[in-house]
């Protein structure tokens, strides 16, 4: 074999080898041991969950926001809101159940540089914009053991119901089918019935829309309207009590008072602040509440309302300063909350939707107003415990309200707040009663035209 032949054979063999290496081949599938495994291994019973924390990034406020709910000493509280009582059993169960049987279904890579595009960056980290940061969800049991620890990112466009997820300590990103039922809305975790009083329970009320001149330290326009619920011709109507200054030719507008009582019984709160112990004048005044020099009388700078129930419970509501806070600063207050009333810059119109208001609640028991009626028994399927009698109920409510200032919605305030003149209407014109022996109005001889042909 000559040299030329050897070269040709070598070239042929090289071509065959190159062709073999360049032949079409199926890509090697990337598989991992945990693909298809549970997102939260060992977690199968949602009733074990006793603590939840959700960490997110608030782009508007440019800060990390933490919302937490947990069970402490047998009761649900919201640690992110100064341990305000939570109505947590049912909602926690739903939140925890969101992660039962969730699998790591689709592998998306181990490249940390891609976390931003998947929206799974740590919300408490320094990197990334709002839509690149995920929602860090942690659920724990009573022992403090972690049941769920995951950062949930963006929805996967081509996979309906799926989201990008990753464990906070890992780079690997998966797609998982998730139907998260976790609200971080404070008002959805609390008892919505603030006063726990029904309109039909209220038998007496007082309303006084006075104003407090903070600079002069004086109260102006105080002229309370007091009214009791009375039976008139078999129908319950509100009537002013003796001594109330009723405008001439007017009576109490029973329908307006009914509306007010309904609004009071349905007050919606949007935030809470802890009352310091002992309660200081500075803490009161910063929220728009003032005390007389002898310490015997409290005033709200926008007036007060009081309702009394059949069992002698007296609810006194004092309306204080407006707050224009939003987000966590509204619902819980935070380290940046101003120590005094928030002022709107001169020349600017406040956003009415954000003009919420502080409210102070006092509860007392008046045995003279206790009708001695047995509280209604709960329905057979009612989960609520039997109602307490007046004095015991008042004590329970005092403990509930004694620790908090409330922030009520602007809508709730406007439904209660009325001008004094709005509470009265024209008195009905009395029917003319004929003198004894005189013909009735319209009868012959009573000034009416004669009957018969003219």
Sheet with the most strands, sense and barrel status: 9 strands, antiparallel
| Integer tally of domains | 2
Instruction: Tell me the overall shape.
Output: elongated
| Rg, Cα atoms, Å | 35 Å
Helix content: 10-25%
Strand order of the largest sheet: 4-3-2-1-6-7-8-9-5
Structure classification? alpha+beta
What is the arithmetic mean of pLDDT?
84
Strand content: 25-35%
Number of helices: 8
Uncertain regions: pLDDT < 50 for 5+ in a row?
23-29, 335-353, 448-454
Kindly report how far apart the N and C termini lie.
156 Å
The counted number of beta strands is: 23
Description:
The protein is α+β, with helices and mostly antiparallel strands and 454 residues long. It is built from 8 helices and 23 strands. The chain has helices at residues 3-21, 89-97, 115-118, 254-265, 281-285, 327-331, 390-401, 410-416; strands spanning 49-58, 63-72, 75-78, 84-85, 106-109, 135-141, 146-155, 162-166, 173-177, 202-208, 211-213, 218-220, 225-232, 235-240, 250-252, 269-274, 289-291, 298-300, 304-309, 311-323, 356-370, 404-408, 424-426. The chain has a 9-stranded antiparallel sheet, covered by helices on one side. It has an 8-stranded antiparallel sheet with strand order 14-13-10-19-20-21-22-16.
């Amino acid at each position: 074999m000559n040299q030329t032949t050897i070269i040709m054979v070598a070239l042929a063999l090289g071509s065959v080898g190159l062709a073999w290496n360049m032949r079409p081949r199926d890509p090697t599938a990337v598989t991992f041991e945990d693909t298809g495994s549970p997102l939260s291994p060992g977690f199968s019973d949602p009733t074990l969950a006793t603590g939840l924390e959700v960490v997110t990034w608030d782009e508007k406020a440019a800060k990390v926001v933490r919302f937490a709910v947990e069970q402490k000493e047998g009761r649900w509280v919201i640690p992110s809101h100064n341990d305000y009582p939570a109505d947590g059993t049912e909602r926690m169960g739903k939140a925890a159940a969101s992660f039962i049987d969730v699998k790591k279904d689709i592998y998306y890579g181990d490249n940390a540089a891609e976390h931003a595009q998947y929206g799974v960056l740590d919300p408490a980290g320094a990197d990334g914009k709002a839509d690149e940061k995920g929602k860090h969800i942690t659920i724990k049991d009573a022992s403090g053991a972690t049941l769920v620890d995951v950062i949930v990112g963006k929805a996967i466009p081509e996979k309906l119901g799926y989201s990008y997820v990753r464990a906070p300590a890992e780079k690997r990103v998966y797609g998982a089918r998730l139907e998260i039922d976790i609200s971080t809305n404070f008002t959805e975790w609390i008892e919505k019935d603030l006063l726990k009083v029904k309109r039909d329970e209220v038998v007496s009320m007082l309303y006084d829309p006075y104003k407090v001149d903070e600079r002069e330290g004086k109260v102006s326009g105080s002229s309370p309207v007091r009214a009791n619920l009375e039976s008139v011709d078999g129908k319950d109507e509100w009537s002013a009590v003796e001594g109330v200054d009723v405008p001439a030719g007017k009576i109490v507008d029973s329908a307006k008072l009914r509306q007010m009582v309904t609004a009071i019984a349905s007050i919606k709160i949007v935030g809470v602040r802890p009352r310091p112990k002992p309660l200081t004048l500075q803490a009161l005044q910063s929220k728009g509440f003032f005390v007389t020099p002898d310490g015997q009388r409290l005033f709200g700078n926008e007036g007060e309302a009081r309702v009394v129930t059949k069992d002698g419970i007296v609810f006194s509501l004092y309306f204080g300063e407006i707050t224009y806070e939003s987000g966590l600063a509204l619902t819980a207050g935070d380290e940046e909350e101003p120590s005094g009333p928030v002022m709107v810059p001169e020349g600017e119109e406040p956003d009415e939707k954000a003009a919420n208001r502080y409210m102070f609640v006092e509860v007392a028991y008046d045995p003279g107003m206790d009708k001695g009626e047995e509280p209604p028994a709960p329905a057979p399927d009612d989960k609520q415990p039997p109602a307490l009698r007046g004095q015991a109920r008042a004590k329970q409510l005092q403990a509930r309200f004694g620790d908090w200032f409330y922030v009520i919605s602007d809508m709730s305030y406007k439904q209660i707040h009325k001008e004094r003149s709005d509470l009265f209407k024209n008195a009905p014109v009395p029917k003319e009663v004929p003198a004894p022996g005189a013909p009735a109005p319209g009868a012959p001889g009573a000034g009416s035209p004669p009957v018969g042909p003219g």
